[in-house]
Write a sequence for this structure.
């Protein structure tokens, strides 16, 4: 862990304006949110359409050149997605276009890659207040802005696949059939995102109501207020018809138990946190 | 419900190309995914930045002019978000710019609004196969493309707030302090999105492995394969310090029980569905 907490620079596109008392620019907090959501949403501009492209992908923060780096260090985002070919192709053509139009340093332009916005959100609870307009969620939301390039180095691709696989289920990489075949690796899209900026936005605590409503005894006797905690829960693993391992391995059973307990505790912890002083508007 | 299943038109920006055997254009399926996720991701182009803006917002499909419309009917998307002012302002200025530059029909241009992409995703399970490269998720993911405008009619704003509030907890609107004050309504941002196109992508079933791996008895004796089901779970509601309702109301207790059971059953149902014939590549 770094000896002091690193923060992303505030850029015009990354600065939280509304409810800025909920904002954080801490690498540690932002990377933690990215690493613990099941998926991230990747958005980028499609020059042929007025609508941005948005694709859910699996991602994990890491450093290939310094694999022992901590979550709070400067890291790249590695992405693996279901329809990555479209993103990869756009990335390649975007890099080529930059090179063609600018006529600049070809290697540098290629490194620039596709401008993407990456979003990850945990919903920690439903916040139910007296007035419907103060209803809210407890949430931890992160957004990263960066440039995505396809990873071409075979060693880095293999390392990234291990990082991403173990980010879903710890130690699963070592427990599966290794190494991937050349054909499998060739058909697997991996992107490295150099992060330019990022921010997190976090709402925690109980509902906040106006004094006017809190002074209304009849209203308070009628309307239940509080937080319904929420988290992502795993059920009992279901073996495939082709599975031949009789007992569920402990690395997997333990992962399910631990994940559920950690997720539950986090939702309760976020609900119990001291309310922010600023009045909720929605 | 319509007498036949409506589908969104396939546009170049909305057509699923990769794993297109997982695609659906059914209004019913797409709207169902949007309505049952806790939040949607709203992305749009920021003319001052290379990176699209992405904001998590609460959304619900509905029809103000025909409130009894079914989930499978032609509907608008109503959005309410935490930092909606930024989106609303961009939407207004985008409409104005269009009007100024085109000099066309002012009302028509205003109706066009801000081009947004809306994404909603359920993760139904982790799919663990023999080779790491065939690992996947069971998921139901939807994307809508449309034009967003601020809702200015007070009656429609109130109706949309009720739609959105009851989309989070059924009947909560009627159970809270009504009506909202003029000040509350003025500070609440509501957007109506006219949907231009949409698509869903769904992966269900057990892992799919290569014949080569399935013929390897030693490998199958060693690597557990199957699905770890996943769903969003609600914990026991936590009353606020200011709460004065002694017992948890049944509409809320019943909602928590029913939601958990429906979400669990859906994850198990998706895992049990027949595997798609196409081989998994990732």
């Amino acid at each position: 862990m770094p000896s002091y907490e690193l923060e992303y620079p505030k850029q015009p596109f990354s600065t939280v304006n509304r409810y800025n008392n909920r904002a954080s620019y801490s690498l540690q907090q932002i990377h933690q949110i990215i690493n613990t959501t099941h998926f991230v949403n990747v958005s980028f501009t499609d020059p042929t359409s007025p609508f941005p492209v948005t694709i859910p992908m699996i991602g994990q923060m890491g450093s290939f050149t310094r694999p022992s780096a901590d979550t709070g260090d400067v890291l790249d985002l590695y992405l693996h997605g279901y329809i990555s070919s479209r993103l990869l192709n756009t990335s390649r053509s975007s890099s080529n276009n930059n090179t063609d139009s600018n006529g600049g340093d070809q290697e540098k332009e290629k490194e620039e890659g596709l401008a993407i916005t990456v979003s990850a959100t945990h919903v920690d609870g439903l916040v139910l207040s007296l007035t419907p307009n103060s209803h809210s969620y407890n949430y931890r939301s992160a957004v990263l802005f960066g440039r995505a390039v396809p990873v071409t180095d075979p060693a880095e691709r293999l390392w990234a696949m291990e990082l991403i696989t173990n980010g879903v289920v710890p130690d699963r990489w070592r427990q599966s059939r290794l190494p991937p075949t050349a054909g499998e690796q060739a058909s697997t899209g991996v992107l490295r995102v150099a992060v330019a900026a990022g921010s997190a936005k976090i709402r925690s605590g109980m509902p906040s109501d106006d004094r006017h409503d809190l002074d209304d005894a009849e209203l308070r006797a009628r309307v239940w207020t509080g937080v319904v905690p929420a988290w992502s829960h795993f059920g009992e693993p279901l073996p495939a018809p082709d599975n031949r391992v009789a007992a569920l391995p402990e690395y997997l059973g333990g992962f399910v138990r631990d994940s559920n307990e950690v997720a539950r505790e986090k939702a309760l912890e976020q609900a119990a946190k001291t309310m922010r002083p600023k009045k909720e508007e929605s």
Summary: Confidence is low (pLDDT under 50) at residues 95-111, 277-282 of chain A. DSSP finds nine helices and nine strands in chain A. Chain A has one domain: 20-99+110-272. The beta strands of chain A are 23-24, 40-44, 53-62, 76-81, 114-128, 136-150, 191-203, 226-234, 238-239.
